[in-house]
Description:
Blueprint: H1 2-26, E1 31-32, E2 35-36, E3 41-42, E4 48-55, H2 62-71, E5 77-80, H3 82-87, H4 89-97, E6 101-104, H5 117-135, E7 141-142, H6 151-159, E8 163-164, E9 169-170, H7 179-187, E10 197-201, H8 207-220, E11 224-226, H9 228-231, E12 237-239, E13 244-247
Parallel strand pairs: 3-13, 4-5, 4-10, 4-11, 5-6, 7-8, 9-10
Antiparallel strand pairs: 1-2, 12-13
InterPro entries: Glyco_hydro/deAcase_b/a-brl (IPR011330), NODB_dom (IPR002509), Polysacc_deacetylase_ArnD (IPR050248)
Protein name: Deacetylase
GO molecular function, one term: hydrolase activity, acting on carbon-nitrogen (but not peptide) bonds
Amino acid sequence: MKKYSLVILAALVVVAGSLRYLSSLARVTANVSGRELPIYSVETEEKKVALSFDAAWGNEDTQKILDILKKEKVHVTFFMTGGWVSEYPEDVKAIKAAGHDLGNHSETHKNMSQLSKEEQKEELMKVHEEVKELTGVEMELFRPPYGDYDDQVILTAKECGYYPIQWDVDSLDWKNYGTDSVIQTILEHKNLRNGSIILCHNGAKYTADALESVIRGLKEKGYEIVPISELIYRENYHMDPAGRQISDER
């Protein structure tokens, strides 16, 4: 009798766990009109924005960027490819030690929507395990290379434990138009508002030179700069058609 009671108890625990899981899913949706969306920005009354850097090539300015961020007392998010992690492991450790988010930018920077589900998982989890072994960090933020995604990419990322992240303010630093262009593009961007996610690249030619002015300009506008991990909602949210994450608890 005792044996059967334990079996029944175990079954109830499993069912209860499943119900909690299903209940959690019911409180979170990124599906809008049949499409799965990543997070482009966050609806918030707080005057906060997130600054992010994609690290897929080059490393000449990483330390300069870290020095400026430290000086300005700002924390950001770095999305790193597996190739970059392998080539610059000490910089990955330095980013983590400085208190910044470590984000996944895929293993080899391929167009994720052109890969099979299994290939997508491999692109995500290979660099995930590498960063975990190097720093102990279990990454949870994923930015698809080139901003390229479809429904399956978003679903695969979530299945691997990731929040898919895009941006609503593109610095265009990768076009190498110059320092002033980077500053003006960000500070005068039509989408810049509470909850914006700003895209930069650590390997772009003028980003490091523009960074201090960008940070001070954002602060002058009244914005607090936070890592993406501190900006997004983890549960009880839905998305609007523009990929803006909206809390259901307001």
